[in-house]
Amino acid sequence: MGTELVSLARAEERVWRCRAALEALTDDAELASLRAERDRLARERAGLHGEALELEHRIAQLDAQRHELGRRQSRLRAQESTADYRDQERLDSELDTLRRRLEELDEGELEAMEALDELRARETSLAEHEALTERRIAALEEALEGERARRAAELSEAKAHWAALLGELDEPVRRRIEGRARRGRSLALVDGSRCSVCHMTLSQAVASSFARGESVDCESCGAWLVGEA
Ligand SMILES: [Zn+2]
Asked: Domain of 124?
């Protein structure tokens, strides 16, 4: 009976260690920083995308203006062939103004297109960086999930071992242990003069009772003290 309870106390200890190990397994710092990095990249890319759309809109506007001016230029040129001397001068000056305005538009459009190319290149590079980060996140998550499954299997195994040992005990003792297990720790070993569960030193009275082989509980945690006196 004594050795069976000691084995059960050790099995219980293992169940609690396995459970603590499983609960301690949370997402690690590297994963958290990678997720933050991915979110930052996504925000930056969305910002660039917005800027690119604005530029596309501006290029379309410049294009429309250029076409409008082109049409005016053609009209003025047609008038020029039939114009008299005074009108000719006015038409020349208007055509001059138009030509300068068209040159400005061309220049503006070219600049905008270059800026757009640059934005798109940055967008692509951000997307690549983002995809790389995403793959590293997935790999880490997979590793973490594997470790979690391993620890969960260990816990199940420890619980099964504990239940099997418990099943070998006589009914009254088993009930006594099951009742305690529902509230927390049920069995503790005496390690020197300390309780193996809460690590508190036993009082003189409890230590004496235990030494006499009496059934006694730890005064601190309530676990049933078992093992060799
Ligand atoms: Zn205790």
From this structure: 2-167
DSSP string of 29-81, one letter each residue = HHHHHHHHHHHHHHHHHHHHHHHHHHHHHHHHHHHHHHHHHHHHHHHHHHHHH
Beta strands in the chain (DSSP E): 187-191, 194-195, 224-226
User: What is this structure's pTM?
Assistant: 0.71
- Are residue 127 and residue 189 in the same domain, yes or no? no
214 CA → ligand 1 middle, Å: 16
Q: What parts of the chain have a pLDDT lower than 50?
A: none
Rounded to the nearest angstrom, the distance between the alpha carbon of 16 and the centre of ligand 1 is 14
Q: Same structural domain for residues 163 and 189?
A: no
Claim to verify: residue 114 and residue 213 sit in the same structural domain:
no
pLDDT at 229: 66
pLDDT, residue 227, reads: 87
In a domain, 86, yes or no: yes
State the distance from the centre of ligand 1 to the C-alpha of 187, rounded, in angstroms.
9
120 in a domain, yes or no? yes
Amino acid 192: pLDDT = 86
pLDDT the model gives residue 115: 97
